[in-house]
Specification:
GO terms for molecular function: 4 iron, 4 sulfur cluster binding; metal ion binding; molybdopterin cofactor binding; oxidoreductase activity. Its cofactor is [4Fe-4S] cluster; Mo-bis(molybdopterin guanine dinucleotide). Belongs to the prokaryotic molybdopterin-containing oxidoreductase family. This is Selenate reductase subunit A. By secondary structure, the protein is an alpha/beta fold. Among the domains are: 224 residues, no CATH class; 268 residues, Dimethylsulfoxide Reductase, domain 2, CATH 3.40.228.10; 156 residues, Barwin-like endoglucanases. Helices cover 26% and strands 17% of the residues. The protein has 32 helices and 44 strands. The strands form 14 sheets. Strands 9-8-24-25-26-4-5-42-43 form a nine-stranded mixed beta sheet. A six-stranded mixed beta sheet has the order 36-40-37-44-35-41. Helix 12 crosses helix 21. The relative contact order is 0.15. The N terminus is likely disordered.
Length: 1048
């Protein structure tokens, strides 16, 4: 640890530029004192004067070392963050959390739980390679040459454009953001948006649109295709890890002020297919439409008796280890819980399991359908639950929810299952009612009719009024019965007895069993159907909303002010807001057939009507100029070159100034992708900024942790709307707004007399909404004089650029301010862990149905193949977007994983965690395969694939490095499968030398150690430069690549 610490401090010896934190006096004089301060404070313990146990040295916030955003307790001395622990007020980080009304002075001695990443977040903030100043490329894109420029100059150049690179010999007139911001009139935007909706619904023709809007057609990208939207859409904001609060701030800028539809997150690189499959499988049917749905229900681990895990590393990643480990471990220790894990790799949780089944990657649906067959054959499904066709029927049978298992589905002449049959089609009701067979006769069903209690027959295959119909459970049965159990076992790579044993155990605990799954099951081209099959397993035992079953999160108090009586309804506090409209660059949320670009099949690129934030589609679409060109892009907290499968193929697009004439990044470092842009504006780390993240999927009570600045910002300051503030993403967006003249920022941004001049003017309103509660009588207490003094003293080290108490108070009313202080003193608002249940049920329920059939999916087509999707789970092999089989000849199947101490990029700075515990990753092989290859631990091997036959990782226009890693031999992986973890093998983030203002900044070799698997992943041969993807859920494929391995 001493050596690691000395390495960390010594960075100042070769970082000479003040553009980086390591070249400043702060690092040179501040960080060595951390070591001295630690030693000094240890001496204090015996004298009971330990400064980190004083309430005035504690601030509460929210982590961002992974997506979970744990509630954290930050301990500060002399303005320096010294220690990070879990917040004991929050049920996220202390199982039996402290009473919310307990004084922070009394809570100071109690710490909550936190993982290694969270505790190492100190080094994320104090990374010597952090950017402080704006830098502009001083050579071609990707040359590694930079120069610092004044903030105001950078804003002027990106807003006004022009020949802004003439000083380095480039003669290109670049359009500035003001030139792209063409549609400015809110009334015109609203009228056009409404009419584009009509075009989409085939209620208006393009000619009619053009005639109606003839005076404003010049604002459109293409008047012959008005559904592409205005030229404003040619500005793209692509973001990676971002949380609530900051999401709304950036959407306010991109969508509502600039009027672009292109706010694109990175979710398809994470769990989007899982999210969307659960949303559609838990929707309500209201006023003739399927609506709502819950993004990621999870097992109630505190009460589950049998947990079946597919492709989820519960103790190392997921949502997240801090929340899941304790109840699972308690269950194993007490004997309450039995676990089975279906995963090619022996994960930490698999090592504790009753059964570990090393499945073939991508064949989760085969295993699940084998289970479904066994469950149906042995009648181990919950008949009563599945038969309930209305909410009243469920209530009458003491069930908290019901299903659509009996809602009849029309079967077309070609055998395709289509939409649900409606009552009007056979003359027994309306078009908003479904049909079930009840007591041998068809009956009309309105699911939410409070006077209707109907139970339907589960297995139906008949004709009604000449219409062929089947029930959803019948369709699922037919798919499950399409193969013998032995065949399902062979496909999945499991033993038939394992399927039988697990099926029996799964159906032996009533409602207290659950299937949990994540990336390993769904990051495949067939990921949607894998996920849907696993969801159906939960539905078959009717475990939704029961203790020990599948449940909703506890949620929280609304931060956006959409509840009655809340003081700041943020959606309404934006005068002259623009109406965004048009097809996003990713074609997400649109059916190809409803666009004016429809020309039959295949489409030029995939469309994703059921997904969103399709990150891997962004840059290939930009490269192809389809559906339109992007003129300016701003990237934040996202690294497409590192995080995308096959991301290196996008390098040519990033380097091409014709493809994206203006490329900007907001980043804390010169990263693996931001190194290729034109300008980098420094951003704040999570210890210096605001957000209202929301809670983990695994907590059953309300949680609203608040991210707030706990250390002084380490970026330079800038003047925005007359206020001196730290340079950040928020400051950048506000400066652009000020320069361009966008609505929603500056004077009267929220309405007359309500300005948005500092980011706190926005974020404090969110906290005020949380303090107000969701209904009357839910106000938190107002801080008394003692708490007010504590608030002031605990913030004493923060400069006025982020903490100006007078200005903070001015943005709220006096009463709101006191309640906001009460919330901030505790790091958010938290319900008691005792508030999770109502009898045998989860208190905050999933409101919708358990849907076994998804008619909206069945009614849609693959935009490349033109074939319809299927509304129920089915087994599909791995295919490209055109539905060609992928049958590569590689000897090994490549998978990837995360370690508990690592995330994609930012943990490479964590000398106390990732770099101390495991400085590099490995090519992990089973001993059987190692013998075949004649390799041993530590041997170097070259890994190649069909899409990367030479094993080259392109990192610059004329530079690549080989995909070589060190071998690690284990027994806990399926023979024929090789695993390479992520978060290693960087070439930015301080890993390589760069030049700033003529000074060479030496890179640090340890940051580049290891092998990065993403350049090896299989690309779609029909879509140049795009990874294989799930056509429904939109997920990028991380587990469908075969590789060869050669000793070097």
């Amino acid at each position: 640890m001493e050596n690691q610490h000395q390495k960390f401090i010594s960075r100042r010896n070769f970082i000479k530029t003040s553009a980086l934190l390591g070249g400043t006096a702060f690092l040179g004089t501040g960080l060595p004192n951390i070591k001295k301060t630690y030693s000094k404070e240890l001496d204090y313990v015996g004298n009971f004067e330990y400064p980190l146990a004083k309430p005035e040295n504690i601030l509460y916030s929210a982590c961002l070392q992974c997506t979970v955003a744990c509630s954290i307790k930050v301990k500060i001395n002399n303005g320096v963050c010294m220690k990070i622990d879990g917040n004991p007020y929050s049920a996220m980080n202390l199982g039996e959390n402290l009473p919310y009304d307990l004084s922070p002075k009394e809570a100071v001695s109690i710490d909550g739980k936190l993982c290694p990443k969270g505790q190492a977040g100190i080094q994320h903030a104090y990374d010597p390679y952090r950017l402080r100043k704006v830098i502009k490329r001083d050579g071609p894109r990707g040359s590694g040459k930079w120069k610092t420029i004044p903030y105001d100059q950078a804003i002027d150049e990106i807003v006004n454009g022009g020949n802004i690179f003439k000083d380095i010999g480039e003669n290109q007139n670049v359009e500035g953001l003001k030139d792209i911001f063409v549609l400015k009139d809110p009334k015109v935007a609203k009228a056009m948006a409404d009419d584009v909706t009509k075009i989409r619904k085939k209620e208006m023709t393009v000619d009619e649109f053009k005639a109606k809007h003839k005076d404003n057609l010049d604002v459109l990208i293409d008047p012959n295709h008005p559904d592409l939207g205005p030229k404003n859409n040619q500005f793209l904001f692509q973001v990676g890890r971002i949380h609530n609060g900051r999401i709304e701030f950036t959407k306010r800028f991109v969508n509502d002020s600039f009027g672009s539809v292109n706010w694109i997150e990175k979710t398809t690189l994470c769990g989007q297919t899982s999210n969307k499959a659960w949303v559609h499988s838990t929707r309500e049917y209201l006023e003739g439409k399927w609506t709502g749905g819950i993004k990621s229900p999870r097992p109630d681990h505190r009460n589950t008796e049998f947990l079946l895990v597919f492709g989820s590393i519960v103790f190392e990643a997921n949502y997240g280890p801090v929340q899941e480990t304790e109840p699972i471990t308690e269950g194993l220790e007490s004997g309450r819980l039995k676990i089975a894990v279906v995963d090619p790799r022996l994960t930490k949780v698999a090592s504790k399991a009753w059964k570990w089944v090393p499945i073939k990657p991508g064949n989760d649906a085969a295993f699940a359908l084998g289970m479904i067959r066994w469950i149906i054959e042995n009648e181990r499904y919950d008949t009563k639950f599945l038969q309930n066709a209305t909410r009243l029927a469920a209530t009458n049978s003491d069930e908290p929810s019901y299903s659509n298992a009996t809602y009849l589905v029309k079967v077309e002449k070609d055998g395709r299952a289509a939409k649900h049959l409606r009552a009007n089609e056979i003359g027994i009701g309306t078009e908003k009612e479904f049909v079930v067979i009840s007591n041998g006769k068809p009956a009309a069903v309105d699911p939410e009719n409070s006077n209707l209690a109907i139970q339907g027959e589960l297995f139906v295959d008949t004709n009604l009024e000449g219409i062929k119909v089947k029930s959803p459970l019948q369709l699922i049965k037919e798919e499950a019965y399409s193969k013998e159990l032995a065949e399902w076992a062979e496909l999945s790579g499991a033993k038939q007895k394992d399927i039988e044993d697990i099926s029996k155990e799964f159906t032996s605990h009533g409602k207290k069993a659950a299937v949990e799954f994540y990336r390993g099951a769904i990051k495949h081209t067939n990921g949607w159907y894998n996920g849907q099959a696993l969801i159906v397993l939960n539905h078959l035992i009717g475990n939704m909303n029961w203790q020990g079953g599948i449940s909703n999160t506890g949620g929280g108090w609304s931060y956006i002010g959409d509840k009655e009586g809340q003081p700041y309804p943020m959606a309404n506090l934006h005068p002259n807001k623009l109406s965004k409209f048009g097809v996003p660059i990713t074609k997400e949320g649109w059916k190809y057939e409803e666009s004016t670009l429809f020309e039959g099949y295949p489409a030029k690129r995939p469309w994703y009507p059921f997904s969103g934030n399709v990150a891997q589609e962004t840059w290939p679409s930009i490269s192809d100029g389809y559906p339109y060109k992007i003129k300016a892009a701003l990237i934040s907290s996202h690294s497409p070159m590192y995080s995308l499968p096959g991301g290196h193929v996008q390098l040519k697009t990033l380097l091409d100034t014709e493809k994206v004439p203006l490329l900007i990044a907001s980043d804390i470092v010169i990263g693996d992708s931001s190194q290729y842009v034109d300008y980098i504006f420094p951003d704040l780390t999570y210890l210096e900024r605001w957000a209202t993240p929301g809670q983990s999927h695994h907590i059953r009570v309300k949680v609203n942790q608040v991210r707030q600045p706990v250390i002084a910002p380490l970026t330079e300051n800038a003047t925005v709307f007359g206020e001196e503030v730290p340079i950040s993403l928020e400051a950048l967006m506000m400066s652009i707004s000020e320069k361009v003249g966008l609505s929603g920022f500056g004077k009267d941004a929220f309405g007359p007399g309500k300005d948005l001049n500092r980011m706190e003017d926005f974020y404090l309103k969110l906290v005020a909404n949380i303090a107000s509660g969701n209904k009357q009588g839910e106000l938190v207490k107002a801080a008394d004089s003692e708490e007010m003094e504590l608030f002031k003293s605990s913030h004493r080290h923060l400069p006025k650029t982020v903490y100006d108490i007078e200005k903070w108070q001015q943005t709220l009313t006096s009463d709101e301010w006191k309640r906001v202080v009460y919330v901030l003193n505790r790091g958010g608002r938290f319900a008691s862990s005792d508030d999770a249940y109502e009898g045998s049920f989860i208190k905050k329920k999933i409101p919708g149905l358990a849907r076994l059939y998804l008619e909206e999916i069945a009614d849609s087509r693959n935009s490349i193949s033109g074939n319809y999707f299927t509304g129920y789970p089915k087994y599909l092999p791995i295919m490209d977007m055109a539905e060609n089989l992928i049958n590569d000849e590689g000897e090994f199947h490549l998978i990837t994983n995360k370690e508990v101490f690592g995330t994609q990029s930012r943990t490479i700075t964590n000398y106390w965690a990732q770099l101390a515990l495991q400085p590099e990753n490995f090519v992990v092989l089973n001993s059987v395969d190692a013998k075949k290859l004649k390799v041993d631990n530590g041997d170097k091997v070259l890994v190649t694939s069909t899409s990367n036959p030479k094993g080259e990782h392109l990192i610059a226009a004329d530079e690549s490095r080989p995909t070589i890693g060190k071998v690690k031999i284990v027994e806990g992986i399926r023979p024929g499968v090789v695993a390479i973890s992520t978060h290693y093998g960087h070439w930015g983030y301080g890993a390589r030398d760069i030049q700033i203002d003529g000074e060479v900044v030496k890179g640090e070799e340890v940051r580049g150690l290891g092998i990065h698997p993403n350049p090896l992943f299989r690309l779609d041969d029909n879509l140049r430069g795009t990874t294989l993807s799930d056509p429904i859920g939109g997920s990028a494929s991380y587990y469908d690549t075969r590789v060869n391995i050669q000793r070097v």
